[in-house]
Design goal:
202 residues, Alpha-Beta Plaits, eight-stranded antiparallel sheet, 6 helices, 28% helix, 32% strand, binds protoporphyrin IX containing FE
Length: 202
């Protein structure tokens, strides 16, 4: 128990954490909240992204999801080099469209070894190879939530220009057909449009 509390404290204080807060106002207008697998999130008109770990849902807000950035799990050196070259920063002025896609994987996934997970993630599902084709059009950030006791394991965030909306749908559809997605037990697809000049550090 003490260890669990200490781990949570370390995540909250030492890791770069981020809080997604949905409510009646915010820098992002929510255009849709759609269930993909499992229980959906409550519809909400706006969402805000706060750096840091917001400890409780502010009054008048609908939901709060938190995550931390962490080390890479699956990327090899060659893939890392490609990602570093092609990956754009978040907060580009033309990238007024965004998606927040929280994902929870099942216990079968988590019971596997790192080696077996990598085999499914990349060798079978080509997650990175597929994703790379959509860079630099789409900017992304992966937040980890599993060790925080949150309802999802990952909070994935994407920003792109309206001209790349079709490409983004194609990417999402392609990943959802992959072997990796057989292990997804909960997923919600939240789409947004920027309402202000808000920027989030990448
Ligand atoms: C924009 C193109 C994309 C690229 C370049 C990309 C790249 C990556 C990379 C490199 C990782 C592994 C990070 C690590 O080693 O820990 C990752 C993880 C992940 N990505 Fe993507 N991705 C893209 C799009 C997407 C999309 C559209 C979704 C959701 C529909 C998604 C969901 C995830 C999830 C849930 C993980 C965590 C997987 C796990 O650790 O089990 N990604 N992505």
């Amino acid at each position: 128990m003490v260890c669990a509390v200490l781990t949570l404290f370390q995540y909250m204080v030492l890791s770069p954490s981020c809080s997604f807060i949905a409510g009646d106002h915010g820098a992002w207008e929510v255009t849709s909240v759609a269930p993909v697998a499992g229980e959906c999130l409550e519809p909400t008109p706006y969402m805000d992204i706060r750096n840091g770990y917001v400890t409780r849902l502010p009054v008048d807000f609908n939901w709060l999801l938190r995550g931390v950035t962490s080390n890479q799990r699956y990327v090899n050196n060659a893939e890392q080099a490609c990602l570093m070259t092609a990956q754009p920063q978040l907060g580009r002025p033309h990238a007024t469209c965004a998606a927040l896609i929280p994902v929870k994987k099942n216990e079968t996934w988590w019971a596997m070894t790192q080696e077996d997970r990598r085999e499914i993630f990349e060798e079978k599902s080509k997650h990175i190879a597929t994703g790379l084709k959509y860079l630099p059009a789409i900017a992304r950030k992966l937040h980890h939530s599993r060790d925080l006791g949150e309802p999802f394991d990952f909070l994935t965030w994407f920003e792109y220009g309206p001209e790349d909306s079709v490409a983004f749908e194609e990417l999402v559809a392609s990943l959802r057909e992959s072997e990796e997605w057989k292990y997804v037990e909960r997923e919600v697809d939240v789409r947004l449009k920027r309402t202000s000049g808000m920027r989030m550090d990448s």
